[in-house]
């Protein structure tokens, strides 16, 4: 009986003096990065708590693992690249994965060179080993898109490695694999500080606006827990607006409890870099133009079987409702 009471208390709690309950929402993030600063601001500033939500945040390293967790019911909401919802759709899912709130709107990776270069030209990656991201994932597809945009065929002009697990890419480069690597922050800036590599280009600046990382859930969840999805999106929007109107230093101070192993100077530098290239979406709405750009990138990478209409896998009603209020 004691166990049953404890289990219930862990899932739902009442605010003192009210009948309002706190709902537990399990979030799976594809990686833990300052690229997702607005989410962490929402948690640390209590915006989700104000909406009666308790965020159970889990890092489900890699898009495939994150989507597996969502499909199996291990998490309620996934924070992952929008391309994963299209992959599930292509497999004929009966309960489709729906994008309902956008978090980032550019690529979040940077090209890191093992050697310090006085000047960088994209042709510098020709004929050398390029340590890319997982095949079919958003980072790798954007990476290929940018290389092709600059006249480079990644499969012919470079020795492209893309079979290393997402979580092991940085350590593989640190161990000596590759002359160039595609990395997220704060790893890229940490490597630069330690002299292990040097940032020479931003894939985010080169790729344009795209729904890079979004919150998504099963269609059945959004129907059953529509109120929770709206509360979640409202809290997220507050966090996005807060990030947009505050300095990198203020944001760094807010999210630092979730990045205890990252120094203050690195945290500020990373956030400043992402803000400068407008990586953080200022509202949760994923529009049709961004969806079109996503599929252009997927088509270039040979990963899109057939174009998927924006309205088929994107719910804009929740975001539109939150923004209007």
From TrEMBL:
The keyword Signal applies. SUPFAM superfamilies: Periplasmic binding protein-like II. The keyword Signal applies. Its main location: periplasm. It is found in: Periplasm. Keywords: Signal. One of its GO terms (cellular component) is periplasmic space. Belongs to the bacterial solute-binding protein SsuA/TauA family. PANTHER family: ALIPHATIC SULFONATES-BINDING PROTEIN-RELATED (PTHR30024), TAURINE-BINDING PERIPLASMIC PROTEIN (PTHR30024:SF47). This is ABC transporter substrate-binding protein. It comes from Bacillus wiedmannii.
């Amino acid at each position: 009986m004691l166990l049953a009471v404890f289990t219930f208390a862990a899932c739902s709690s009442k605010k003192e003096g009210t009948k309002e309950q706190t709902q537990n929402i399990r979030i799976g993030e594809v990686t833990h990065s300052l690229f997702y600063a607005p989410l962490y601001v929402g948690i640390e500033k209590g915006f989700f708590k104000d909406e009666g939500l308790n965020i159970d945040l889990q890092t489900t390293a890699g898009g495939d693992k994150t989507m597996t967790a969502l499909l199996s019911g291990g998490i309620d909401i996934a924070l992952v690249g929008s391309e994963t919802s299209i992959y599930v759709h292509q497999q004929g899912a009966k309960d489709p994965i729906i994008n309902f709130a956008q978090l980032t709107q550019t690529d979040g990776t940077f090209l890191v060179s093992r050697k310090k270069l006085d000047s960088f030209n994209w042709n510098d990656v020709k004929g050398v080993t390029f340590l890319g991201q997982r095949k079919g994932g958003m980072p790798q597809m954007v990476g290929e898109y940018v290389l092709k945009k600059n006249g480079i065929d990644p499969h012919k002009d470079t020795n492209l490695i893309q079979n290393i697990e997402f979580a092991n890419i940085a350590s593989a480069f640190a161990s000596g694999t590759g002359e160039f690597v595609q990395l997220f922050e704060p790893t890229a800036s940490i490597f630069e500080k330690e002299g292990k590599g040097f940032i020479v280009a931003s894939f985010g600046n080169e790729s344009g606006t795209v729904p890079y990382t979004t919150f998504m859930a099963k269609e059945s969840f959004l129907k059953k827990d529509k109120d929770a999805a709206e509360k979640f999106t409202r809290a997220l929007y507050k966090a996005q607006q807060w990030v947009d109107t505050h300095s990198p230093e203020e944001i760094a101070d807010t999210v630092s409890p979730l990045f205890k192993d990252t120094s203050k100077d690195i945290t500020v530098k990373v956030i400043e870099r992402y803000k400068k290239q407008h990586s953080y979406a200022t509202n949760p709405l994923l529009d049709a133009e961004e969806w079109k750009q996503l599929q252009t990138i997927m088509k270039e990478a040979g990963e899109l079987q057939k174009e998927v209409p924006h309205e088929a896998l994107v719910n804009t009603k929740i975001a539109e409702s939150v923004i209007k209020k």
